[in-house]
Specification:
single chain; mainly alpha; two-stranded parallel sheet; two-stranded antiparallel sheet; about 5% strand
Length: about 210
């Protein structure tokens, strides 16, 4: 997929930064988030450093970070967690927007720490990560998922986006395994760049 330079320039001018929280974000409570971390089963695998656990130490998860950076790390976590829960015959823990806000507050995911997205990099990531193998963008791409511009309003809020991809990730992990596709993973600013591009693309699309 290739966009005209003028359209990319429009995106760069029109898209808001990923840094500040939006009105769509609900306030999170770190104390509630700590309780949810235990109630959702996260604490079963993620122990404080020095204690044996199946997953990364709690301190590696709970540190100052951007909200979209944290969303990317949660997405990366899905395949291993999905396989473990399937082995134990346990259900995937679904998370509401309020619960995600609380968990993010506990894990110190702060939208203000996300840099302004690089929309050109976001466009590259859309293709490189294989998003269009399943999803469409304005009619171009796969037919498994819906057109990504149909997620109106969910790109403006890091909490809403993190909630959406968390609840969607087990389906993605299972689908990738069935088709032999490489499950896409995100690091650093990549999730923020991708979401910034999708936000701009949605705003530029005819309603």
């Amino acid at each position: 997929m290739r966009l005209a330079p003028a359209l990319v320039a429009f995106f760069l001018l029109a898209a808001p930064g990923a840094g500040p929280a939006t009105a769509a974000d609900v306030p999170g409570d770190p104390a509630r988030g700590r309780g949810l971390f235990a109630d959702k089963g996260c604490a079963r695998c993620h122990h404080p450093r020095g204690q044996p656990g199946l997953g990364p130490a709690l301190e590696e998860l709970r540190r100052p970070q951007g909200a979209l950076e944290l969303a990317g790390r949660l997405w990366n976590h899905a395949p291993a967690m999905f396989a473990l829960l399937k082995q134990e015959e346990r259900e995937w823990p679904r998370i509401s927007a309020q619960e995600m806000a609380d968990l993010m507050a506990y894990l110190q995911g702060n939208p203000a720490r996300d840099p302004v997205p690089d929309l050109s990099q976001g466009q590259v990531l859309l293709v490189r990560k294989g998003c269009l193998k399943c999803h469409q963008l304005r009619g171009e791409g796969g037919t498994v998922g819906i057109d990504l511009t149909k997620y109106h309003g969910r790109y403006a809020s890091p909490i809403a986006w993190a909630t959406t991809i968390w609840n969607h990730s087990p389906q993605m992990a299972a689908h990738s395994a069935r088709l032999g596709l490489l499950y896409p993973r995100f690091s650093g600013e990549e999730m923020g760049n991708l979401v910034g591009f999708l936000r701009a693309a949605t705003q530029a699309s005819p309603q």
